[in-house]
């Protein structure tokens, strides 16, 4: 058992979404959207951090990390969960971020996905995009949609991911999951090869570059259903992002292709609930003849208006979704306002519902976390006496914050911005 496995176990127990490991600092969980230090776990030096991380890193990723200073892979603890791993190097030394991927794939019903999103699972061809910032739950939503297809259709599904996150068992569908780096050289190479592998549905983990986007659109045009992700925040900006990837002399052609192949966009962002946990706010675009015409004629600025008029088709703007979460009491008005893209429009919705906004009451994460971790989180699992430890033992848990390098304000590190203000006489 690797030493870090005890932190993974605690991570799943408390419901944290991410574990952050940074040299010279204490490990931290992202719990309900907040960064929370792991109580009782000491700061880890750069040398110790490398030993802890290399203990679970596959040989191929070790070589890539030594050469490129970052790498991605998946790590699994049978019976507990899988973890998406990103190793990196920064000014402090080696570090890593681990995202938990539970063994159980949540269903569309458990996620509360609207009917319009579920309807995308029954398309025979076209391009469907799930977008949002990093950590907004795109992979979870796509996994639920693929799982729904797997249980309701008898098709061939190919997924191309970096790395493989959710592992899909074969129900009614045959599913081939390919990992970039392990099973294929790149997204674009795997996507081009997929056309010769008799697929009905292709999932592309990330549309990273122009060529991958172009092949995805062509695949959708040739009679396949393609799912993909982008890091955009709204449906209209998603269309613009795709088109802007191409040279100006090709954009008219791509607009025409996209107007016929794009079937829908689900843009999502996660909001903190009032009590505990997070909930997704969804913007749903269903491409009809009016929106297809706006894409083809370079009038994407009109898409939000068309979405408001397309409520009967299941379309919903981000502001509409945020408004529902606030009115239902799941999310505070302040949290929703922070997540809103069109903040002026969202303020009008709040006033229409007689709600007030008070951003002054926002509490800092450091103040919320205090000197201990989240309520109900006991001291983390340090290595047991009968379990193997890294070659260089970690610092004693009795080490004080004052002696821990980089532990925060208590370490005596002066804020450089304070010195700047003093020099300016502020």
Give the biggest sheet: 7 strands, mixed
Structural class: alpha/beta
Shape: globular
Helix % is 25-40%
Poorly predicted tracts of residues: 361-393, 395-421
Calculate Rg over CA atoms.
Answer: 24 Å
The percentage of residues in β strands lies in: 15-25%
State mean pLDDT (0 to 100 scale). 86
Continuous helix count: 17
Number of strands: 13
Order of strands across the widest beta sheet? 9-8-10-11-7-12-13
Q: Oligomeric state of the chains?
A: single chain
Element-by-element helix/strand order: HEEEHHEEEHHEHEEHEHEHHEEHHHHHHH
Distance between the termini: 54 Å
List the helices and strands and how they pair.
Layout: H1 5-14, E1 18-22, E2 28-31, E3 34-37, H2 46-54, H3 59-68, E4 70-77, E5 81-90, E6 93-102, H4 108-111, H5 115-119, E7 126-131, H6 138-152, E8 156-161, E9 174-179, H7 187-194, E10 201-204, H8 210-221, E11 225-230, H9 235-244, H10 251-261, E12 262-272, E13 278-286, H11 289-296, H12 303-309, H13 318-327, H14 333-339, H15 343-352, H16 365-369, H17 416-423
Helix pairs in contact: 7-8, 8-10, 10-11, 13-14, 13-15
